[in-house]
Amino acid sequence: MFPNARLRVLVTEPWFTKTITALIVLNALVLGAETSPALVASFGDVLHLVDRVALVVFVVELVLRFWAYGLGFFRDPWNWFDTVVVGVTLLPVSGAFSVLRALRVIRVLRLVSVVPSMRRVVAALLSALPGMASITALLALVLYVSAIIATKLFGAVAPDHFGDLGDSLFTLFQVMTGDAWSDVSRLVMEQQPFAWVFFIGFVIVTSFTVLNLFIAVAVSAMENQMGEERAEQGRGEAEVTMDVLAELRSLRTELRALRDSASG
Predict the structure, then answer these.
(1) Which residue from 21, 103, 7 is spatially nearest to 58, judged by alpha carbons?
(2) 109 lies in which domain range?
(3) Residue 182 CB neighbours (<10 A)
(4) The model scores a pTM over 0.70
């Protein structure tokens, strides 16, 4: 299929994008309303109609965009994302596949591809994944070593929390997230008063240090993403400036040629 320039202009118009965005938000509200038995009993037919109309519009939009860009449609990862999101919601929702009806809610994720600021955040998070993988490995190592130590130290006094390696891993993960960690530590400290040294050290290393590294990596990736966008905008403006200057030079050359021919 060859690209269609007129359709490309249509699908890139601001009003077209805003309309699709508004429909995505409306569809999200409808899907939320369908979780209320009272609203379904009163407005069920209207809600289902709006949901079907939204799905039809999304399919038509994808077809128009594919027609506008041709095979170039598949060069943009966000187009793949939109196609998968809409395609999943087209799966059969009856019989054994009725559970897939709940997947309609993922249409709301199309906001990520429509809203530029959300795209920047997702792109930054994806670029930060390699750094986050290293931090995750470090965190898992710290958690594993700490769980072995905690099992050895506190397995006898708190078998429900530190009876074996699995229990210790789960308990320390709970402590790392800050979920009632003081209750766990005080329970152990009733038998071992100096256990606070282990728990405070563990919280400082995991919650205050390692977890903050995730935030640092994400922020750094976001800054890099924004810097690349500014650089790209700068290159675009420079290209426009060069085109304008080239056009001016061409006009000057033509004027000079006209003058020479008139004088001759």
Answers:
(1) 21
(2) 5-114
(3) 13
(4) no
